[in-house]
Amino acid sequence: MIKKKLKCKGKYDIRKTAPFFALLLPSLIMLILFIIRRIYPFGDRSFLFSDMYHQYMPFFSELLHKVRGGESLNFSFNVGIGSNFLALFVYYLASPFHIFSLLVPESHLMEFMSYLIVLKIGLAGLTAYIYLRKHSVSQNARGWQSGLNALCPTEDSCFGALLFSCFYALSGFMAAYNYNIMWVDCVVLLPLVVLGLERLVKEGRCGLYCVMLALSIFTNYYLSIMICIFLVLYFILLLVTERGGLRSIGHFVFFSLLAGGMAAILLIPEVCAILKTDFGDMDFPKKVESYFSVLDMLARHCMCVTTERGLDHWPNIFCGSAVLILIPMYLMNKSISVREKFCRMTLAGFLLLSFGTNILDFIWHGLNYPDSLPARQSFIYIFLVLVMCYDAWRYLRNADEQQIVYGCLCAAVFVLFCEKFIDHEDFELGVKVLTLVFAGIYGILLYLYRTRESRNVHRAVAVTALAVVIAECGINTFATSVGTVSRSAYLGQQADYRALYEMTKEQEQGVYRLEKFTRKTKNDGTLTGYPTASVFSSTLNSYVMDMYKRLGMRHSKVYYGFDGATALTSAMLNVKYMFGESEKYENGLYTLAGQSGDICLYQCNAVLPFGYVAPTGFDLPEEEGIQGLRLQNRMVKDLGIDGALFVKCERSVSGDDIVFTAKKEGYYYGILTASGTGKVDYLGGSTEEEKFIDLKKGSILYLGYLEEGRKITLTNGNEEDTTPEISVDVYRMDEEVLGEVLELLSAQYMENVEWGSDWLTGTLTLENAGRLICSIPYEDGW
């Protein structure tokens, strides 16, 4: 075979600098947006959005505390009431990039995470560029057999790869989920994994595929599930288009298993942990359901469509307005085989169908439905679509002018169809206008590039196209992404919390926990570094969540929280201190014990020692339908104590609100008795005004201490609720019964308790047989 080395005339060779720009341009666009958003050090804002705010920053902080403190990574008392930290590490923190966080001062950990995302977005552009260049080299260069080229074939290929790599790095998926720092790694690695698979089939070289797939699984096993499903489908596509044989099948199976085995050191413990979460319960759909039409999904290709992060299933698939022209051109181009076009379009159609079909959605997400953040595999669809668009670009010289015109007409008709048939609030007039404008510009540039033979015209078109791509990606990301919070508000009081926690350590020796009346994040204990009773994590122990649910406390598939705890449940969880941002919470249950800055520390007066002993057989009642305050009354009865701990009181209804006047002083709780109300505002109590959120039927509301004659009002806190009526029953706690319960459970308990990051010791001497209860969730390994 004769090889020719193509040489290009001119002073500037884009081939030498294109990889650098593929890395630089997406990162630079993000950096400019950071400056516009005034993200630190350009202002007092921070790129802590959604889960990055509630989960990733706290988890990184806990990892930093553990490593610098020489603690075990197996377990943490600061994650909920105790949690498997290794499982959390694998799910959220296992990226090799994250090891550099250990070199960063804790005060700038937030910036490390934010700018690491900027770097990873640039790396996604680089790996996409590498794939597209290698992909084009491995294809038959039929696109360059005729016509005068102002750019050399390889230069043209480099330039196209640069443009489409930018679309990949700043796609709709990245706009929606770029704050998911552990997901971005898989977006970075996907092009290299696919490149490795193509080499495995076409050349019999398996090393790149095996190593990159193993790294992907190691980095984030969850998105790697979706990548593995895609690899099976793409391998079948390659077998058809490249006519692979049994040897390729053997290599694919063996090296896929080897990649999984290489990552097994983290994969196996993670699987064991996931089986103890709600995600381990795989309830396969009983019937096929469709979420929306194909046109509804395709319309998400439009520019500046609001990203979906909720429960509405919409995929985030924007990857440039040029797609609307280039995909029709791809189908019309005769230089691309019909077999290849059919296979790739079929696979893209299947991926698109997966977004809107419940069973396929369930399978793609690891035999579970996502708890918000839908269509998490959409980056794979985007990658496949951009590869087809790149092929249309590569074979542009073999396309006639009419194909470009037809492509533009297809784009215009598509937008008009969206205007006519789609009435979703996300598709405003500006969305359609911007999409048409940018598609029109791309159409003009493609036409000029194809019909003009002047080198200067081609270079001018190339520079203009690059500027347009940068502008479109920047505008779309600015309009749909990069949410911020106040940096000083997020970090400002951490020193006060730590100082007060250190003060409690001087007073306490055994296992105890601290909680908050009002919380900043759903993982405050992890963020600051103190033992807590709340956690928001996909790896939480579902048995603890079920217990919180039955006790009337806050819960979801990925969260259990202390809010909704009564004096009894607080004592049973060994919560001995509470943080508050004012002195208004002091009463007979809570005594002000210290203050640092604006943060007050309260000591709980209703407490139990760690490792208390209950009568033999004592447990949560198993009777169906009993939960919350009624369940706790049954628990008291099972202890052999007469009288109810919580006594139901009369309340009245005023319009949509609940009005209650205390006939006797004491501590009062409410319980939500109907579904549909997620927020409740509380007016007139001893704490003046409170807002309860994340509510479900059965949720308990702490109403505080009410004097005789005090009138309170409970109202729907959601102004957008079309059914504002709420249903809440009010109960008064009997302090004498509470005292009897605490005295009974405190009679025998573990003494001389010492504890560390993943161990505890103590001595227990019993006069009467009973059941030892430690407020630590059981998991294999203890």
Task: Report what the structure shows.
It is a single chain. By secondary structure, the chain is an alpha+beta fold. Among the domains are: 168 residues, no CATH class; 185 residues, no CATH class; 88 residues, Jelly Rolls (Sandwich), CATH 2.60.120. It is 48% helix and 13% strand. It has 26 helices and 24 strands. The strands form 8 sheets. It has a 5-stranded antiparallel beta sheet, with no helix packed on it. Strand 2 and strand 3 form a beta hairpin. Helix 2 crosses helix 3, helix 5 runs antiparallel to helix 16 and helix 9 packs antiparallel against helix 14. The longest helix is centred in the first third of the chain and has 30 residues. The relative contact order is 0.10. The N terminus is likely disordered.
| Average predicted confidence as pLDDT | 92
Basic shape: elongated
Structural class: alpha+beta
Number of strands: 24
Q: Which runs of at least 5 residues are low in confidence (pLDDT < 50)?
A: 1-6, 140-151
Radius of gyration: 30 Å
InterPro entries: Uncharacterised_YfhO
Pfam family, one: YfhO
Organism: Acetatifactor muris
Protein name: Bacterial membrane protein YfhO
Short description:
With 782 residues, the chain is α+β, with helices and mostly antiparallel strands. It has a 5-stranded antiparallel sheet with strand order 14-15-20-17-18, with no helix packed on it. Strands 5-9-11-10 form a 4-stranded mixed sheet.
